[in-house]
Specification:
The complex is a heterodimer of chains A (552) and B (327). Chain A is mainly α. Chain A has a domain at 29-201: Cytochrome C Oxidase, Chain A (Up-down Bundle). Chain A contains 18 helices and no strands. In chain A, helix 3 packs parallel to helix 5 (114-133), helix 9 packs across helix 12 (354-377) and helix 14 (389-419) packs antiparallel against helix 15 (425-451). With 327 residues, chain B is an alpha+beta fold. Chain B folds into three domains: 23-64 and 81-108; 118-214, Cupredoxins -  blue copper proteins (Immunoglobulin-like, Sandwich), CATH 2.60.40; 236-324, Cupredoxins -  blue copper proteins (Immunoglobulin-like). In chain B, a hairpin with a 6-residue loop joins strand 2 and strand 3 (137-139). Chain B contains eight helices and twelve strands. In chain B, the strands form three sheets. In chain B, strands 3-2-1-5-8 form a five-stranded mixed beta sheet. The chains are: A mainly alpha (552), B alpha+beta (327). Chains A and B meet through helix 4, helix 10, helix 11, helix 12 and helix 13 of A and helix 1, helix 2, helix 3 and strand 9 of B.
Chain lengths: 552, 327
Amino acid sequence: MSEVLVTPQSVQELEQFEKTAGMLSWLSSCDHKQIGVLYLLTALGFFIVGGCEALLMRLQLAFANNHLLGPEAYDQLFTLHGTTMIFLVVMPTLLGLSVYLLPLMIGARDMAFPRLNALSYWLLLFGGVFLYTSIFFGNAPDMGWFSYAPLSEKPYSSLPGVDFWALGLLAIGIGTVTTGINLIVTAFAMRAPGLSMKRLPLFAWMTMVNSFLMVFALPVLNAALVMLLIDRNLHARFFTSDAGGSPILWQHFFWSFGHPEVYIMVLPAFGIISEVIPVFSRKPIFGYGFVAASTVAIALLSFAVWAHHMFAVGLGHSFDMFFAFGSMLIAIPTGIKIFNWIFTMWKGAIRFTTSMKFAVAFLIEFTIGGLSGVVFATVPMDWQLTDSYVVVAHIHYVLFGGTMFAVFAGIYYWWPKMTGRLLSERLGTWHFWLTVIGFNAAFFVQHMLGIAGMPRRVWTYPALPHWQSLNMISTVGAFVLGISTLFLFWNFMWSRKHGICAGENPWEAWTLEWATSSPPPVYNFAQIPPIHGPRPLWDLKHPGQRDRDLNK
Amino acid sequence: MQLGIWLESIIIFQFGHSPATFPVFSPHSPYARSISELSSGVLWGMLGIFMIVTALVTYCIHKFRASPDQSTPQPTYGNTRLEVGYTISFFLILAAIMVFAVRSMSASDPAGSQPDTLVVVAHQWWWEVRYPGTGIVTANEIHVPVGVPQRVRVLSADVIHDFWVPELGRKMDIIPGSENHVWFSADAPGTYLGSCAEYCGVEHAWMRIRVVAQTPAEFAQWQAQQEAVPGSPASGETALGAQYFQQLSCANCHTIRGTAAKASIAPDLTHLASRETLAAGRIMNTPENLSNWLNDPAIIKPGCKMPNLHLTAQQRGALVDYLETLR
């Protein structure tokens, strides 16, 4: 193994790049770090929008027979909320972290295709803004985020909202596929010398596996969206029951994208947890091989589970059993990860920074979401509970209790790298506890509403026993969650002015992104430390105790 | 729970009976009971796993908190035997759940080849209920004799809907262009509430189902009453109402057997006055509510397809008088 420096140019030459940067560079930049930050800022903007939509919905549902919002407004709100949070918040957040961190973690100067990277981002922003312009052209989409045909077809949705939705998602979908290709090539071709696949940081591993999911899943959605647009505007019959089309065909297309999509939204979160827990437990990950391999297992299985969204369609018992079996199997690699993270903490020296607090809370919240996932794979239980509020609770435990808790852990962890300053731990603790209380109050009771018989996507409801009190608890919880987010924003602003300077490596972490200044220069690294294992900075600091010597 | 009691004391509108709080866990048919028993078992299992995870995490939080002077802990890179161990345990747990699930599938959703006892046609946003072999057509309210298994053919008139009465059985999607079957029955007399469970457009929220289970004698009486054709009113306000019904475009959408009104776009009103609710469970069926509904349906059920016919108070009064005779 040669201990090589990746410096084709001198540092003075590299500094030249820095001088061209300015405010305008945010528009023209192809630098993966600037693009990563743009993704994150975009996600933050849409997070505020999607969050306000959620709060309006919760206000409407606070009382039985409430007429604060009419059904038309409510239906647009829940469609926009779902679409926004999935395509414009969770995905850009994870893509932003991926394009920001992957090159740094593998010791590269940038992504493999920097211009393509910029194109992907601008497609996403354009798609998101386009989706929202529908408000000014009659109506926002109101057929739900999975847009079931024939409700989404012209006879039942004559206004242009559905077309805006389809075109907006198409732009985002194309951007996501190109990012996927970009991340794969970067991970395969741009790794620093010595950084073999077996030494890749787990976040990079999961980002790479995730990119394959994006490249295979998103084109299915894109094709289905084009077919929907043809149906609506050129009078085809792909998804209507007359003239040979089939509404169930849309469901197959949508969910064969949609279930891999669920893992697209959670694998990078697993990656974040796999970085944060070892660093704050002061131990390497427990079972690197199992954690990495279980990611591949999840990715493969995720293409064989989609019809568990369709158990109530009535496609036959053997059909249901096949997909139930696949869905049960996918719980195994997920469970392995949870236990490996716990055993990483075992006999560690745990430092409860805000980042670690969110990571530990993730373990609990995500376990609830994962276990209710097993419930939905149990076919007869799905027959009772699907399309009830239990599904709403489940999706939020997975995407908020899972992905967003991990994202918060990641933000507190990498913010110092991105900005050069630490976030306040005091404000962070407020943010953490309010999030935990608000989140569980808002969503745990929704399990009970589901078994009380409340269907999802209703704009109002009759005052059946406890429906009103449970809904009120959920609404109060949602507002606590809303307030918790204000502490995060306050923390951002506080840190920009008063945050303690982070230095290169404030957490004493071990992966390559911590081997450069905070924030990193445009060229990322003047030189790369030698790489002998998955924790190059540990090896550098403890030459006698390298991972590869200890782990035989 | 004080808050709950307080909130329920300001309920705006209450059903005239007390339905089960958690209908998924108060099954009233063998089909629902099978799912409920499976659910209890699985939920206890899930709770057990959750407790193990929580206990381990809590133990780590308390036991392995770093002290200020602590040196770097001993690295552990994994333990293949342990990891293979929990992988196999997960597999066994899930395989067990799968076995119980498959058994419950055939109990809660039997194949059966009995002829359909009910045909339910879902419309945006109401239910048409037909009793094959009789002339009975009703809406939003399904009367069945206690204990008799019902094989329901479910059809859609427009978009995808879903038939769900949690105390009585599984839910089943209703897909336009294809037909599904679902079984239910009711062990005890009473009213069982359900709803459309697949988002179907603006008034998905007010597409509720009532299943009324009756003793065989009561059901036979109901059946006889529903099969009868109501007589045409001789004179007075009700006769005027009957005349308005045919003239003021009501007959363009609704059926009243024994009259010229034979359209099937909207609910059959032959025995409207015998039903408990109006507008698919939105309001109780009282003369006053009926009058308000005729005055402006969109105030009561925004987005519904019944138009405001701009009736005068006199026309409304006559129509309500007439419709109230349709027992």
